Amino acid sequence: MSLDTLSLYIHIPFCQRKCAYCDFNSYAGLDHLFIPYVRALVAEIAIAGQRWHHPPVETVYLGGGTPTLLSPDLLDDILVACRQAFAVHPDAEITCEANPGTVDRQRFADLRCLGVNRLSLGVQSFEDDELRLLGRVHTVEGAEAAFRAARAVGFANINLDLIFGLPGQRRGTWRRTLCRAIALAPEHLSLYALSIEEGTPLAREVAEGHVPPPDDDLAADFYLIASDELAGAGYVHYEISNWARNEVDEPGGAGVSPGFSCRHNLTYWHNGSYLGFGAGAHSSLDGRRWWNVRVPAEYIERLEKVQSPRWQREDR
Length: 316
Ligand code: SF4
Known about the structure:
The chain is an alpha/beta fold. The chain has one domain (6-315): 2-Layer Sandwich (Transcription Regulator spoIIAA). 36% of the residues lie in helices and 27% in strands. The protein contains ten helices and 16 strands. The strands form four sheets. A nine-stranded mixed beta sheet has the order 9-10-8-7-6-5-4-1-13, with helices on both faces. Strand 5, helix 3 (105-113) and strand 6 form a beta-alpha-beta unit.
């Protein structure tokens, strides 16, 4: 069987430090696995390319974790593997997530050279107190500097991730965060409500009464505030958590192009086909979903033994 077109997600499960609220499949202190992990990724990508007969690819998304912890050479190995195994379209959207505490101007310039044309910065808040509560490795100043550095090297499509509904967050601080985000004029914003996940340090803080539990009604207000502020600033709310700079009227009345809506997000939103590579990565195509083993060392071991990293599957 061959496929018409699809999206690729590549999971990099490494972080400099675990954030207090995070229960994603990401780990600090596994730097010794960077090289074998990328070797395993390259192998998995090559096998999939053969298995699906090198189909066209419209979007590639390097997510995590913190992909920018990997050296440019390792990121290059991954993207070269994608281009060898799949027919990656010359205009493909190639996104890389970046944590502002792990990047500088040179790293952004390297990403541009690798063909990354969309950046997703995990800013989360423009209040230093809130960043401390979340256990982020960066400050507000660092986030703004990272944004400016990305712009300076030519990134023309940048997303900022923000979180709302934080314990103790007030309408005023949320508005300030939105205002500072809008002032930077990113092309795209992703806004997520904080959810307190069992087993995280933040969940313990809440359970022990050191931090107030999030207020769901207030979080709903924050969402409405964001909708108003972002609409006023010219952002289109094109998907539950995502806003993009205005849709663009095509010349000659040829319709409306999606502007800076994230094409990779739209693949998920429209139930399109995607392949996920790496520890815990999910795939969905041809009426089936499956996902890989979560633990990076187990993922590497499976690929080294030329075994499938697939863990579970379900039919839709
Ligand atoms: S940087 Fe992202 S993936 Fe890593 S620990 Fe923080 S929230 Fe989780």
